[in-house]
Structure formats: structure tokens, C-alpha cells
Automatic annotation (TrEMBL):
Pfam families: ACT (PF01842), Homoserine_dh (PF00742), NAD_binding_3 (PF03447). Pathway: Amino-acid biosynthesis; L-threonine biosynthesis; L-threonine from L-aspartate: step 3/5; Amino-acid biosynthesis; L-methionine biosynthesis via de novo pathway; L-homoserine from L-aspartate: step 3/3. The keyword Coiled coil does not apply. It is an enzyme of class 1 (oxidoreductase). It comes from Qipengyuania psychrotolerans. Residues 355-435 form the ACT domain. Signal peptide: none annotated. Keywords: Amino-acid biosynthesis, Methionine biosynthesis, NADP, Oxidoreductase, Threonine biosynthesis. This is Homoserine dehydrogenase. It comes from the Bacteria. Belongs to the homoserine dehydrogenase family. InterPro entries: ACT-like_dom_sf (IPR045865), ACT_dom (IPR002912), Asp/hSer_DH_NAD-bd (IPR005106), HDH (IPR016204), HDH_cat (IPR001342), HDH_CS (IPR019811), NAD(P)-bd_dom_sf (IPR036291).
Length: 435
């Protein structure tokens, strides 16, 4: 059998220990499929003597993980530390600069610096792969890059954060509050080191920016992702959505709008109402799902575990197998220098229906004020429900669903209501996902 692919592993937390367990458990099968063994030679993390439930005695311990990039006995550096900048980025640059392969699960770093790293990898002819960075164990990077390579895609969207999906679907199942369910998601190891990245939608935005680049052949533009998290979603919104035939999911969506002259890219992450009949409505717990619509393939659904040690390790080792086979090509669907720069699209042009929840003072004239703002902004109301007094000190909750129309009209209506003394809290708008 050929010489082993020798790897150095930086970071021995949830994913790092998962990778060790997977390589040890399936070593013979991996060697047979790769045509050569995959051998861990060196490991590094913050604390050497911590009990991680894996035996590290056959690997060299490296105190300063940056030293991995310079080791002559290492072919590929695997970074499972995290953080968009800092030591992870220093290691990525050093490893690629030294001509070594580089594999990472770090979507924050790829979203911010993926283009720079891909350019460096191309110059050095070094493999660079990040399947685990998007939707954990789901092979969606490979699926879009290779499986849909012959298609023009018009939309890519999905559930990209396991923590948020767990929190929302558990709120739906139990009727419990947001805070309680977030603690449960953290306990299960789904959340990022800083859970604000999950619940504010930033983690999903990182993944969406990467997916859009792969699917559309555009340059990664994380800064242009319009991002809204789930912290304002109440148990009462979920109950209201249920009564109307929807579930609430945090959806990341990217689409290419073409006005005939130029293409513009719309990238958004926000809580949406998903019709019961839509496949994303059945996605519960930490599961992720990505829908890609190709002009020849039609609608494709990729679904599976988006977080957790085993599924994420599965994606990391799949990248290593690709490298061991000598098949790791460019990380995007086109060479990095051929990715197109696309200006952001105007979200106001979106045509659709929205769920809008107001928290208002319980007194005469309030509904008249809201509906007048809708009329003046050109928003047509399909249904409106007022429920009894809410938790907000005597305020009531008014939820409405609008008829399809341009989003800029809803934005204008809310601007007309801004500062109204009748509003006890900022309104929450959630778009209704179209089939
Ligand atoms: N946990 C998941 O389900 C999951 C899924 C997909 C992607 N990821 C990504 O994988 C990466 C790792 O995530 P995790 O959940 O395993 O994290 P973790 O916090 O469990 O582990 C991080 C590891 O890195 C080490 N580390 C951190 N800072 C370091 C430093 N400055 N120097 C040396 N070592 C350092 C820690 O000691 C620890 O061993 C992150 O980029 C994360 O976004 C995680
Ligand atoms: N914190 C992430 C881990 C996987 O990227 C999630 O909840 O989906
Ligand atoms: Na993946």
C-alpha cells in the first residue's frame, strides 16, 4: 500500500476528538478507500493533560500549534480550533504557505478569509477543503460543487444552524421559552463557543455566504448577508404560526436576481414561517437541510446532522480521503480567480407574504392606526388576529398575515408606525417561505 497521508490535528474539542475516534474506528476501511492509510502524527490543544476520552499516546504532542505548519512529517494540517482570525487563521496561512494541505471545519474563518486562503492554496497547489464548515456532516459542499456542477442554480436555502433549529422545534414541541431551550442546546454540544453566533444568525450567515459562493460561482461576501436571529421569536409566535398552518424556522436564503443587465446577489438569514407541507417544516432538532434549485436537476434536498462530534468528523475525514486519493480540486465550483463579484440585491424588491406581530397597548384606536399605516404604505392584509392580554404588562399581541406584495411596502408601513406610543415593543416580521 502507498505511503500514509500524515496529518496534524489542531484542536481536540468536540470535533477534534470525533476525528480521532473516526480515524481509529474505521482505519482499515478508510485506507482501502483512500488507497493509503490516513495517519495522525501530531496533535495540539490548549491543555495537554485534559481527559478527552481518547488515547493520545501514539501521537506527538505539539505545544504551539503553529509549529505544525513547519513539520516535515506532516502532509495536511487539520484545524478544529475555531475563530475567524487569531491562531486558526495564522495556522491556515502558514500551512498553505508551506505547501501543506489544509482542512478545516471553521466556517467563520472561511466566510471571512476563504478567498485569501483559496488564492494561496491555488498558488501553492495545496489542497484546501472545508466540507465540515457548512452543515456539518451533510456533504453539501461536495454536493453543490460536483453534483450540481452542470446546473444554473436560482435559489439555495435551508436550515443551517442546528442550535437554532433545536431551540425553535423544541419550543414548538414543548411550549417552553427560548432561554430554557438554549441551555439544553448548549448542554448537547451544538452551540458555538459563543452561542450569540448561533442565536443571532451569524453562524448561519457564515455558512450561507460559503454556500452561495459555491452554488453561484460568486465571490464570498459575508458582509452583505442580511442577518436576523431568533431571540425575538416568542412561544406565542410559534403557537400563532401553528394555528395558521406554519412552523417557524431560521432560514438562510441566497438568490441571484438578474434584471437582464447585471446579476445581483441576495443573501439573508432570518426566522421564517414555513408551510406544514414544505420539506423544511419536517426538519426538527439539530438537523440541517439545504435546498438547491437547479435548472436541470430540479429541487434537491440535502438533509442530515449539521452539528455534533460524529457527523462533523465524518465530513472532515471525507476531505482527508479526497486528498489522500489525490482528488481534492479547487474548493469552489470554478477556480477562485474566476469567482464573480456580485453587488447585493435590494431586499425591498422581494415579492411575498409576511407574518407581522405587533405588541400594542389595549385601547381604542390602536388597530385603526396600524391598519391605516398598512393602507398608506400599500400593504394588503389577508388576516388579522388579536389575542387576549399578553405577558407585556397589559399589552396585547396582534398578528397579521399580508397578501403577497413588495417587501418595501411592509418596511414603509413599519417606518410610519415607528415611535408610536401605542407600540409596546418593536414589531416582528417573518416572511412566509414560498414553495
Ligand atoms: N461542534 C460542532 O458540532 C461543530 C460542527 C461544525 C463545525 N464546527 C467547527 O469546528 C471547530 C471546532 O469546534 P468544536 O465544537 O470542536 O470546538 P471546541 O471548543 O469543543 O474545541 C476547540 C479546541 O481548540 C482548542 N483551542 C482553542 N483555542 C486554542 C488556542 N488558542 N490554541 C490551541 N488550542 C486552542 C481547545 O483547547 C479545544 O481543544 C469550530 O470552528 C466550529 O465552528 C463545530
Ligand atoms: N453551532 C453550530 C455547529 C455546527 O456548525 C450549529 O448549531 O449548527
Ligand atoms: Na458539510
Amino acid at each position: 500500500m502507498a505511503e500514509p497521508l500524515r496529518i496534524a490535528l489542531a484542536g481536540l474539542g468536540t470535533v477534534g476528538t470525533g476525528v480521532i475516534r473516526l480515524i481509529e474506528t474505521n482505519c482499515d476501511m478508510i485506507a482501502a478507500r483512500s488507497g493509503r492509510p490516513i495517519k495522525i502524527v501530531a496533535v495540539s490543544a490548549r491543555e495537554r493533560n485534559r481527559d478527552r476520552g481518547v488515547d493520545l499516546s501514539s501521537y506527538a504532542w505539539v505545544d504551539d500549534m503553529q509549529a505544525m505548519a513547519g513539520r516535515s512529517d506532516v502532509d495536511v494540517v487539520v484545524e478544529l480550533v475555531g475563530g475567524s482570525d487569531g491562531p486558526a487563521l495564522t495556522l491556515a496561512r502558514a500551512a498553505l504557505d508551506a505547501g501543506k494541505g489544509f482542512v478545516t471545519a471553521n466556517k467563520a474563518m472561511v466566510a471571512h478569509h476563504g478567498l485569501e486562503l483559496a488564492e494561496l492554496a491555488a498558488i501553492k497547489a495545496a489542497p484546501f477543503a472545508f466540507e465540515a464548515a457548512v452543515a456539518g456532516g451533510i456533504p453539501v459542499v461536495k454536493g453543490l460543487r460536483e453534483g450540481t456542477a452542470a446546473n444554473a442554480l436560482n435559489r439555495i436555502y435551508g436550515i443551517l444552524n442546528g442550535t437554532c433549529n433545536y431551540v425553535l422545534s423544541e419550543m414548538e414541541r414543548t411550549g417552553a421559552d427560548f432561554d430554557e431551550m438554549l441551555v439544553a442546546a448548549q448542554d448537547k454540544g451544538y452551540a458555538e463557543a459563543d452561542p450569540a453566533f448561533d442565536i443571532e444568525g451569524v453562524d448561519a450567515a457564515h455558512k450561507l455566504a460559503i454556500l452561495a459562493a459555491i452554488g453561484f460561482g460568486t465571490r464570498i461576501d459575508f458582509e452583505a448577508v442580511r442577518t436576523e436571529g431568533i431571540t425575538h421569536v416568542r412561544a406565542s409566535d410559534i403557537a400563532q404560526a401553528d394555528a395558521l398552518g406554519y412552523v417557524v424556522r431560521l432560514v438562510g436564503m441566497a438568490s441571484l436576481d438578474d434584471d437582464g443587465e447585471e446579476s445581483r446577489l441576495l443573501q439573508r438569514v432570518r426566522p421564517c414561517l414555513v408551510p406544514f407541507r414544505h420539506p423544511l417544516a419536517a426538519v426538527t432538532g439539530p438537523t440541517n437541510a439545504v435546498v438547491a434549485e437547479g435548472d436541470f436537476s430540479g429541487r434537491l434536498l440535502f438533509q442530515g446532522a449539521g452539528a455534533g462530534d460524529k457527523p462533523t468528523a465524518s465530513a472532515v475525514v471525507a476531505d482527508l480521503i479526497e486528498i489522500a486519493r489525490g482528488q481534492c480540486g479547487a474548493p469552489f465550483s470554478v477556480p477562485v480567480t474566476a469567482l464573480r463579484q456580485c453587488a447585493p440585491a435590494d431586499p425591498g424588491q422581494r415579492e411575498g407574504s409576511d407574518y407581522i406581530r405587533f405588541t400594542v397597548a389595549d385601547k381604542p384606536g390602536v388597530l385603526a392606526e396600524i391598519t391605516a399605516a398598512m393602507r398608506d404604505a400599500g400593504v394588503s392584509i389577508e388576516s388579522l388576529i388579536q389575542r387576549g392580554r399578553d405577558r407585556d404588562g397589559g399589552a396585547v399581541q396582534v398578528a397579521m398575515v399580508t397578501h403577497e406584495g413588495p417587501e418595501r411596502c411592509v418596511t414603509k408601513a413599519l417606518a410610519l408606525l415607528e415611535g408610536s406610543e401605542n407600540l409596546a415593543a418593536p414589531p416582528l416580521v417573518m416572511p412566509i417561505l414560498k414553495d
